[in-house]
């Protein structure tokens, strides 16, 4: 394995090139919004693992489904999750929304938390961490969108996509992924970079493929990083395919599953045949015994 150390500047250059390519598909601007702090928090809950437009639609659906946030706060999870059925894990989203509304209301008997914008980063993060069900992604997005914090929110889909492209090493975990991307993307560029990589990571056109793709070979991580842009182009044009080994493995596992599914049926048939034969033999024996005893009498 190459011992060449990757500098933040190396990754910065590649990130800029990736942004240039993604702009062609997803646009060159972050969608504008004038959300309150609370609405930004609720939007972040909708956005995790979803494209921007789907999250926007889910938030609007939620807001239109209830008279106000107070009604939503006292509603059941079953009632709340109906607003998020178009997204994955609607029950978890409903739980996070309700807990957020509950904790905010209990703290100030209102849903106005605009003073959040005046907090420093540590105080803001501490406040959001009081809502135990919130994920790091939701907290980071809320801080980025309301405080302008230099953060690149990361979740499972963004991490997987970044590794598949070769933008991050295969062994990268969630915490270090955010740190590495933050170091590579300028503060002014982080909202756009996040928006574009999130759109790609959650685009239904590519999610199945990225889930099947193996990370690139890690022998020379600098070469892998430099190849990220060409891998992105191949992904967008449909030229990037799962490795033949993976395809063979899934094909053989499918055959094994099919054989396993057939095997029990054959055994069951044999067993039932043997059982029925035994029952017939026992029945005949009992009849013969009965006849003998009748003759003796």
From TrEMBL:
GO biological process, one term: DNA repair
Sequence ranges of Basic residues compositional bias: 263-297
Gene3D superfamilies linked: Helix-hairpin-Helix base-excision DNA repair enzymes (C-terminal), Hypothetical protein, domain 2
InterPro entries tied to this protein: DNA_glycosylase (IPR011257), HhH_base_excis_C (IPR023170)
Comp. bias regions, Low complexity: 239-262
SUPFAM superfamilies according to UniProt: DNA-glycosylase
Region described as Disordered: 239-297
Molecular function via GO: catalytic activity
Protein name: Uncharacterized protein
